[in-house]
């Protein structure tokens, strides 16, 4: 049976009311708030299949719980004070040192507030909260335990040199990446002495960073207009506007409240235990979540391959380049770990949609410290395979049409499926891969399809031009920083 968009919305809203629990609503217990801030509550990563040998782990995650990124006025006459940012205050010992009762590799230095962006309290807009920092550390310990076992199968210990770390250049993502790395090192790097450096974190200039969804990198504006002009979406939007708008405007006291900004503002309150008005009910929370998930799925799956190219093009190019190198080396490829810290939209929601993780052609707005792990391994039959772990759960990679019972797909199959999802130079005029891509693609280029080679050769030229330009510059912008340099770096937190 098929339903019209309007009927579907009414059905969802009605069912939300019918299933309302008689128990008191705990607003902090919802999927957006992410991991409980205790590492022992982060379940272990799924084990590799029996007889498998680890090759690669690509780990993408969203930052932890944060302060609002905009004017905190979703609820009138109530402006909360945000003081719980220990890494921006002169606190010794640090939050993580307190919780673990053991020396950490990285004591978090004092970070001054961002001038002109201060909200009530000692935090700033878009800053990682103590809760978020602890969530990041919990994810790091979870990853560290997995990496420890993966490398142990080789008779090796994970070293700092085995980790390639990258983050977008925002306070909350930098701090989250440092928190994750701290957890990994504390668990899995026995040679790291207290006070030792963590792996350096690489960054890109904000205007040239492909990890986020930006029209400056890939030209997506026209596609977005097309997706939201689809008749089915227009009908859904009209019905949602009729049912949701009066409730939201009644809470804010403002006509035509921006639904997306309101929801984000409300979530920062909910997940931080701040006061919320009685009018913001569990039913309304569910309705808003349903609407916004549908909003983003419309653009991610209206034309799936085109959306993947425009919203995840840079990520897919970088991933494809390394997978080619892995295939060329075969089972002899040295084990390596990639850590990529970012946001809900870049890399999380868009990459999960591009790969269709879960094989449902639908994604949900990711919680704080949401994590996607793509793991390459050699199975017991000596075949290179890839699996996905999303939010700690093994899930199918939907773009792979042939999957094994363990939900993995062959590396050859994934590479072939990715090729039509790689962007063209015209689609992504601002996309310039890191110089590392030159080495990866040069090693594996012969194994790429003809169309893929044609596309990627242009990006190789751009990456080479960037390398030459940096070598010619007397004072090039660093591509990586130590943890001390991270905190001293200029940044744009919004």
Structure description:
The chain is an alpha/beta fold and 494 residues long. Helices cover 41% and strands 9% of the residues. The longest helix is centred in the middle third of the chain and has 26 residues, at 304-329. It contains 14 helices and nine strands. α4 (171-188) links the parallel β2 and β3. Strands 1, 2, 3, 4, 5, 6, 7, 8 and 9 form a nine-stranded mixed beta sheet that branches. The chain is globular and about 60 Å long. α6 (231-252) packs antiparallel against α8 (282-301).
Average of the residue pLDDT scores: 80
What proportion of the residues form beta strands (DSSP E)?
5-15%
Q: What are the low-pLDDT stretches, counting only 5+ consecutive residues below 50?
A: 1-23, 87-116, 474-478, 490-494
The assigned structural class equals: alpha/beta
Backbone CA Rg:
23 Å
Shape: globular
The major β-sheet equals: 9 strands, mixed
How many β strands by DSSP?
9
Question: What is the count of DSSP helices, taking H or I runs of 4+ residues?
Answer: 14
N-to-C SSE string, H for helix and E for strand: HEHHEHEHHHHHEHEEEEHHHEH
> Cα distance, first to last residue?
45 Å
